[in-house]
Specification:
Layout: E1 2-10, H1 18-34, E2 39-41, H2 59-78, E3 86-93, E4 108-116, E5 119-125, H3 137-140, E6 146-152, E7 155-161, H4 163-166, H5 171-175, E8 182-187, H6 195-210, E9 213-218, E10 220-223, E11 226-229, E12 233-235, E13 241-244, E14 251-259, E15 269-272, E16 278-285, H7 307-325, E17 331-334, H8 339-352, E18 357-361, H9 369-382, E19 385-388, H10 392-401, H11 406-428, E20 431-432, H12 438-443, H13 464-476, H14 495-499, H15 519-531, H16 536-541, H17 546-558, H18 560-564
Helix pairs in contact: 1-2, 7-8, 7-13, 8-13, 10-11
């Protein structure tokens, strides 16, 4: 056996910021070097950020990535870090195009490189290209066909990229043939609820398949609708968890591993990958000499977060990075005294600090006194900036010129409120946060260009029942040391807001239940229809009431045009409205009886 101290740099790059991302590689390599690591690994597409989407089809961007890789290799050497091997993801291209109809010009590659002593030692590319859910990689990349195996301190380390773990065959299936002592996987795996358990089982399975320990380093941070939670892990050859990084924050996971010494003769040459392809093993050597024996540091896995904590952590990180990476300094939202806007304000305060959160109270002729006082109490508890802009006179002015009734009159109030948010956004440079939840988006229970207006929607992937769950969870954390929460001394959300029956307050004594089924009945049906794609008969067979099924299906189907115009927001479920669920707006298909 040989010892190897590996460092997994779970860091937060920004798409397109090649200079800033290269700086992160240098900075975190220096931390790894100070920790005595023999090898440091960064996530998938670290140098460019992820996902780059159609930037991969732009030759100038590909060339900039290639040049940045060469520069960062030289910079590492110039700063005395050239003797520690660095593995990082970047964007490359295949020079000899593969034959495939519709192949993107330039044949971009989702690539990995080993950097050592100022040079790019070896390059490879992702073999399995995902084409499901939020991924469009088969459209913009071509696949790789190489498994790099690099000898470091007498241990052979094989490298694969993200999806190569999730599919059968390919480079992982060749790792045991290559007789590697460690399988290193660099990843940009987006967060979904309960995905941490799925990842751990997957890594354990692949480690046993490869016959060696597996180190999995994952991206952390928000990118538009996607949130990357980190949760980097290392498992033994038997699949046993050895250590684990925290979720939703940058972290250097350093681990001392006892690994099999490399074979005397390296395995090279093409190997059948069991998926109809052939993988070439590209063997390189950094150092043959094993490390002198030393007392390894104990491995202590970070416990995973429970379900409400990890969902809330994803919303905070996704909101913070959208604000920060897009150059906003502050946010603004309408605070109605209801649960949705209360939770959005609280998430925003946790994400960027209460002093940067601005709320506007916009009472109308139908606003109850309780709604106003509840909103004012939340502002006081959290220390937000607030202003009050009554809209009754504005509504009266519109109604004096327009003969509006019923729903048109109700929607006018919502659109006037949106005009005020947007005007204040323009005046002061705030990002407007939208308060709609997934239950409302699904059923079309929102006003287009009204409460749906804004730049970012922190709770758009939360059902209404989950909104209440998170509000209660957030209040329960007062006095606890949770890294991504602001330290309040009292519950940030007044109990009166949580227990209040939901209402849009656009007509006298209005309640959500006047239009929608009870949320505890509606939300499970929406999950089955939207996230699980169950049709009418399957929904009824699952126990949902037939008349309600037909009513809700109609509401969801008719609201597609509204959802298409809704702002982005953090994805936390397996199928969100946005990158995941793509249905035609013009669509006459209906679930038949």
């Amino acid at each position: 056996m040989a010892q190897l101290r590996i460092a997994l740099a779970q860091v937060n790059p920004t798409v397109g910021d090649l200079k800033g991302n290269a700086g992160l590689i240098v900075d975190w390599t220096r931390r790894a070097e100070r920790a005595g690591a023999s090898l440091v690994a960064f996530p998938e597409m670290m140098l460019t950020g992820y996902p780059v989407e159609d930037l991969a089809l732009r030759s100038s961007f590909v060339e900039a990535s290639q040049n940045a890789l060469e520069r960062v290799a030289r910079t590492l050497a110039d700063q005395g870090l050239g003797d520690i091997p660095v593995v990082t993801g970047y964007l490359d291209r295949r020079h000899a195009s593969m034959a495939r109809p519709g192949l993107p010009a330039g044949s971009p590659l989702d690539a990995a490189a080993w950097l050592y002593q100022g040079e790019v030692l070896v390059r490879s590319a992702k073999h399995h290209l995902p084409n499901y859910g939020v991924f469009d990689e088969y459209r913009i990349f071509v696949r790789g066909d190489t498994l790099p195996v690099v000898r470091v301190r007498g241990v052979d380390v094989a490298t694969v990229i993200c999806e190569d773990l999730w599919q059968e065959g390919g480079p992982v299936s060749v790792t045991s043939t290559a007789d590697a002592g460690l399988l290193l996987a660099i990843n940009a795996s987006p967060y979904e609820r309960n995905k941490d358990d799925v990842r751990l089982r997957l890594c354990a399975e692949r480690a046993r398949e490869a016959g060696c320990a597996l180190a999995y380093v994952n991206l952390v941070g928000g990118q538009d609708e996607l949130v990357f939670d980190g949760d980097s892990i290392i498992v033994g050859a038997d699949g046993r968890l050895l250590t684990r990084a925290p979720q939703f924050r940058e972290h250097l996971l350093v681990a001392d591993l006892d690994l099999p010494a490399a074979p005397h003769e390296p395995v090279t040459g093409p190997v059948n990958a069991l998926d109809g392809t052939t993988i070439s093993i590209d063997h390189r050597t950094v150092s043959e000499d094993p490390l002198p024996a030393y007392e390894p540091s104990p491995l202590v896995p970070t416990p995973p977060l429970d379900d409400p904590a990890e969902v809330y952590g994803a919303l905070v990180l996704g909101t913070r990075d959208y604000v920060r990476k897009n150059g906003f300094r502050s946010v603004i939202l309408g605070l109605s005294g209801g649960i949705d806007s209360a939770l959005v304000a609280t998430i925003a305060a946790d994400a960027i600090g209460p002093d940067l959160v601005n709320v506007v109270l916009l009472p109308s002729r139908y606003s109850t006194e309780g709604s106003i006082t509840d909103a004012e109490e939340l502002v006081k508890r959290q220390g937000l900036h607030s202003s009050v802009v009554p809209i009754r006179g504005m509504v009266d002015a519109f109604e004096a010129e327009l003969d509006l009734h019923g729903l048109a009159e109700e929607n006018l109030q919502a659109r006037i409120r949106a005009n005020i948010w947007m005007a204040l956004s323009n005046e002061h440079g705030h990002l407007v946060l939208t308060g709609g939840n997934k239950s409302e988006l699904a059923t079309g229970y929102s006003t287009l260009y009204g409460d749906s207006a804004g730049g970012f929607a922190p709770i758009k992937d939360l059902t209404k029942t989950m909104v209440w769950t998170l509000a209660r969870w957030r209040n329960e954390q007062v006095g606890k040391d949770v890294p991504f929460l602001h330290p309040y001394t009292q519950e940030p959300i007044p109990e009166a807001i949580i227990v209040k029956e939901p209402s849009a307050e656009l007509r006298p004594d209005q309640k959500d239940r006047d239009t929608l089924p009870p949320y505890e009945v509606l939300d499970p049906l929406l999950v089955d229809y939207v996230e699980r794609d169950m049709g009418r008969d399957a929904l009824i067979a699952a126990g949902h009431e037939p008349a309600l099924v037909e009513r809700v299906i109609r509401l969801v189907d008719l609201a597609e045009y509204k959802r298409r115009q809704y702002p982005p927001g953090p994805k936390i479920t397996p199928k969100n409205f946005g990158r995941d669920r793509r249905l035609p707006i013009t669509n006459r298909w209906r679930e038949e009886r």
